[in-house]
Amino acid sequence: MTPRPLPSTGRRLALAASALLAVLAGPALATKAGYVEARRGDAPAMATIAGSPLTVLIGAEHSFQIVNDQVPGSGQIFPSQTTGLADMGWMVRAGGTLYTPDFGSHPAGTATSSLGAVTPYAAGAISGPAGTGSEADPFVVTVEAALGGSGLTSRQEVRYVNGKNFFTKRFTLTNGGAAAQTVQIYLGGDIYLAASDSGIPYREAASGSPGGSDCGSPASYYILYIPQTPADRYTGNGYSNVWSQIGSGDLDGALASASCMDNGAALQWNRTLAAGASVTILAATSFGEIPSIAQFDVSSVTPASGAQGATVPVTIRGIGFADGMSVAFGSGISVADLDVVDAATATATLTIAADATVGPRDVTGTNAGGTLTATLRNGFQVTGSGGPPTDPFTLTRVTPAAALVGATLQVTLQGTGFASGMAVAFGDGITVSNLTATGATTATATLAIAPGATPGPRTVTGTNAAGDQNASLPNGFTVLAGSGEPPAAQAVPSLGLSGLMLLMLGLAAAAWTIFRR
């Protein structure tokens, strides 16, 4: 049967409804409690890993948006636009201050008002993506940012391998202050399951990964925050409740009732950092089917090296461990006495053959049922029988990794093969003095950045003490333009009465314009 055409008034009503829905959907933000439009000013710098099926957008202030080819046209984190950063990221509470991404400057706005008063990370440096996206050479983006005047600095390495439905994050916090600091580190977000802002709180038991599933029966799409470093606390609840828990200091360690809601999830790690100490947190986030990494994984081996001919007791950490699992360290290394201590810890004794090939090894694990495998790339290294090898000269990191023009600061360099007499350079406009090798892998130096130094990333170069080896660290340091004052603490505003009135006036104007046709 052919549908009857709408009468003139009906057509106008339909047009008005469409206009109202378009305004409300922009993108479906005005109806979401706590949503505010972006502040005026520049959006954070951003790098994009254009992988498949995932495209990962990473902010220079530790925020994210993720697009999944299997759900075209919709970001998987709220706000659901696909071209800018959204309400997901790393957050740190230290000294009573909550340091967060600069959610309020994201072009699509934010619904994180329940965090309360926050201090965005200071202007950060971002580099990449590097790599080809293969298993052996994953895409990598690196972010460095300071936490105001706390003396804490942060570094994040984001990695993605094409074909995976998850990406991994390595978040390192360093205490450059003179006293110990107690911190809470959070990873969380307002998840947008498939193409819907509604989902059911969910937790994968083997790995303790909170998140959500779609509202279908049975569910077919999941977003999970996977704690490769075991977390101290977690939550899965309504998005505003998740932000409120982070804002108050501690997650509740629980899931909300299994009902369809506008949900989010988060993880929490509690740490105390001595002066000069660092801590590294490993995590992954997945989209779609529950990946094997959320059920069985190998994340570390301690110690991470052993000499040819040695017998080495090791501790292996990961998730989903159970009696009947197995691990392998490659040719020339036999594994004995494998004992599962708990679901995240196992011990074993390695016997390294006298002629085992020197160099890094992948550590491969298989779960108790033989259905899942996990690989820790370069998780163990065989050294020469005389002890640790003489390391080649390399440069791997500079902390802090950015500073303003005109600044004078002390930096710490990391790498291998360091010794007194080595030299480093940071390019035109930066003078290096007081270079001191404090060990084979660390050195300190004083940088004086000229007021006229050109802003932008720099390649850090070095020469070893003997003068026969050179090293370089592309984009290892960034010269920043502008003022160095850290952002002031700010409360993300909510949509108040005046905002609602303006919205209603806008809707009425849209409807009036259509009805006058």
Descriptive account of the structure:
By secondary structure, the protein is mostly beta strands. It folds into three domains: 46-294, Glycoside hydrolase, family 65, N-terminal domain (Beta-galactosidase, Chain A, domain 5); 298-383, Immunoglobulins (Immunoglobulin-like, Sandwich); 394-480, Immunoglobulins (Immunoglobulin-like, Sandwich), CATH 2.60.40.10. It contains three helices and 35 strands. The chain has helices at 8-25, 239-248, 497-515, and strands spanning 46-50, 54-59, 64-68, 88-94, 97-100, 117-120, 125-130, 139-146, 152-160, 166-175, 181-189, 200-204, 209-213, 222-226, 233-238, 254-255, 263-273, 278-288, 297-302, 305-307, 311-319, 326-328, 333-342, 345-352, 359-366, 373-383, 394-399, 402-404, 408-416, 423-425, 430-437, 442-449, 456-463, 470-480, 490-491. A hairpin with a 6-residue loop joins strand 33 and strand 34 (470-480). Helix 1 runs antiparallel to helix 3 (497-515).
Summarize the structure.
With 517 residues, the chain is mainly β.
